[in-house]
């Protein structure tokens, strides 16, 4: 992404205007105008960890604003008290599980995997991008979330046991943002029309993926609840009456005793090698997310590739070095997301990812 995003261009314009005022009026306006111009240009152009300074400051302010509001067991801590797994009724079939919060509805659909990086049918992103608009309903995001977790050994044999392959699951997650799609929702009767919208989105996703030979499975609400709860790995059970609080720093999010760190992945072959990179990391939980969001005027969808590691604090520190080394060997670039850890962590789970302001 260019450093001169829309806010950056506005800051540059402010700097130019301040410079013109300083030059024309001089006197007391000279130091004032120059100071404003220098500050505005620094905010727009000075990069920190690959991001312009104004975005880093905005992220820091958002971290401070979220402090104290991140409470709840497990993944609910990054969503809030409105987190709920519900059943969306369907005609003549089992209900579809969905995750609801204050402003979004997310429907996870299972995409069974034979192996993590094998001969599974490739998922066409250009076809997935068409799901960002289903009929006249704009979706906030369409994501492919893949999670690697440790294999479970149920053998009762004694002696050395060879390590089992890691378990891999993949979900297609469709997010309806009730603010972003408010016109379409009102046109269908308001909140009462949301189940119909979600059903149509699921049917359209099934059609799109079936045309590419990809199996799609609807999930009931109880399975969605289990899959969502396991997104961060096993956690200790909080004491009765105690609501755990998530601790967000610029680099990590700690929920109960699990530390998570999310990274942005880029490179010429990043999409094809993302799962291979994840499989090379020795941490309990590794999740990747291929995020498609609407572009300007609903054109040219924006693609983001995320990789998240979850485990103990020591495991995450060690894995950070492994990630840097392995990504270089694969000719990939990874970048930390300081101040954006909660939003990016959310994007690697099954909860909704709403529209970016």
Top keywords for this entry?
alpha+beta, 2 domains, 11-stranded antiparallel β-sheet, two-stranded antiparallel ribbon, globular
Describe the structure.
The protein is an alpha+beta fold and 357 residues long. The protein has two domains: 6-45; 61-152 and 166-235 and 243-347, no CATH class. Helices cover 34% and strands 24% of the residues. It is built from ten helices and 15 strands. It has helices at 6-25, 29-45, 53-66, 125-128, 182-187, 194-210, 221-229, 270-279, 313-329, 341-347, and strands at residues 47-48, 51-52, 84-90, 93-100, 104-110, 133-134, 137-138, 141-149, 167-177, 247-248, 253-255, 258-266, 285-293, 302-311, 333-336. Strands 3, 4, 5, 8, 9, 10, 11, 12, 13, 14 and 15 form an eleven-stranded antiparallel sheet that branches. A hairpin with an 8-residue loop joins β13 (285-293) and β14 (302-311). Mean pLDDT is 83; it is low at 153-164.
Averaged pLDDT? 83
Helix content bin: 25-40%
- Global structural class: alpha+beta
Distance between the termini: 16 Å
Share in β-strands:
15-25%
Strand tally:
15
The total count of helices amounts to 10
Count of domain modules: 2
Which secondary structure elements does this structure contain, and how are they paired or packed?
Elements: H1 6-25, H2 29-45, E1 47-48, E2 51-52, H3 53-66, E3 84-90, E4 93-100, E5 104-110, H4 125-128, E6 133-134, E7 137-138, E8 141-149, E9 167-177, H5 182-187, H6 194-210, H7 221-229, E10 247-248, E11 253-255, E12 258-266, H8 270-279, E13 285-293, E14 302-311, H9 313-329, E15 333-336, H10 341-347
Antiparallel strand pairs: 1-2, 3-4, 4-5, 5-9, 6-7, 8-9, 8-13, 10-11, 11-12, 12-14, 12-15, 13-14
